[in-house]
Amino acid sequence: MAASRCLAGDGPADALRGVALDRLDDCRSAGADPELATVLVSDDPADRTFMDRKHDLCAEAGIDTRRIDLPPDATAERVYRTVADLGADPSVTALFVQVPLPEHVDELEVRRRIPPEKDVDCFHPANVGRLVAGDPRVRPVTSRAVERLLDAHDVRIAGRDAVVVGRGTAIGVPLAQLCCRRDATVTVCHSRTRDLGAKTRAADLLVTAAGTPGLIDGSMVSGGVVVVDVSVNRVSGGVVGDVDAASVDEKAAARTPVPGGVGPLTMACLLDNVVAVTADAAGVDDQSR
Ligand code: NAP
Question: Under a CB-based contact definition with an 8 Å cutoff, are residues 35 and 66 in contact?
């Protein structure tokens, strides 16, 4: 019988949205109006749906957005030029590029073209460097979401044996860095890891961002583990994470649901980062944090 505690994201997401909207008011009072521009290089309906949600979220907050969706066979030059042009546009205050990009597009070349002061997901190499140096200008939205979710549910990170499955630059790597910064002992696993189950069974905090439904089942976790399932995988009948919920819940102390766990907080963190980079660029004081 399922026994694990549900680490839901909706409540903490609502709270953070409230904070962001307060700062948005401060921004507007100071004459700074955010505009988010996004770039997607994909024709996958799931990617487009996720992008729709980002724009809906901003529309609900009354934030202007601009959306450029390019086909997956768009030339690398076209992608680089699109990002650079949006970055140079003075009315765009916040810029987000969806990854992963098609293989023929060099992600680093894209990252370099996002102006650091408009970067809402800690993509520019200078912002990554500042994050690692402990002087963040902006934090990656998904790792911020995981941190806020665990803190909101009073789940300790310090001292844990954390295993992060996935080393993607936008998600896995920042998550590992977060766990390390918060004093966990961290193991990072990926597709070439030998005996993944042996590694995941050693975790008392398991964070998975592999994008592979059913990757982690009950035989791969130990009793009392806290499981953070970051992945959002579209399958027939809805979305699932990486975790086989039924068998993992037999052993886990707590688990984030999919949907309704990390996802809502990621959206709230994106909104908060859009407002924050706009406010910072305009020199608006942060009264709320
Ligand atoms: P990614 O860049 O493709 O990274 C996936 C990682 O998983 C890679 O490091 C890969 O290893 C590893 N991996 C794949 N299959 C594996 C396996 N069988 N065993 C062990 N490791 C395996 O993907 P991403 O952009 O990080 O996204 C990961 C997931 O997060 C996706 O499901 C995405 O939809 C989801 N997501 C969630 C949110 C949210 O708010 N909840 C936000 C954005 C994305 P290699 O490096 O060896 O290839």
Answer: yes
CA 30 – CA 244 distance, rounded (Å):
49
88 and 118 Cβ atoms separated by less than 8 Å: no
| Residues 140 and 146: beta-carbon distance below 8 Å | no
| CA-based nearest residue to 74, from 51, 97, 93, 50 | 97
Q: What is the whole-number distance in angstroms between the Cα of residue 142 and the centre of ligand 1?
A: 12
With tokens 């803190």, the residue in question is 151
pLDDT tens digits along 247-271: 999 999 999 999 999 999 999 999 9
The CA distance from 23 to 277, in Å, is: 11
Element of type H or E holding 140: none
Tens digit of pLDDT for each residue in 113-148?
Answer: 999 999 999 999 999 999 999 999 999 999 999 999
- Ligand 1: residue of 165, 230, 270, 272 to mutate (most ligand atoms within 8 A of CB) is 230
Take residue 153 and report the two structure tokens written for it: 């549910």
Which residues are tagged catalytic? 54, 98, 121
Answer yes or no: is the C-beta of 189 below 6 A from any ligand 1 atom. yes
166 in contact with ligand 1, CB cutoff 6 A:
yes
**Which domains, and CATH codes, for the chain?**
33-131 (3.40.50.10860), 141-263 (3.40.50.720)
Q: How far apart are CA 190 and CA 114, in angstroms?
A: 28
Count helices and strands in the chain by DSSP H and E runs: 10, 11
Q: How far is the CA of 8 from the centre of ligand 1 (A)?
A: 21
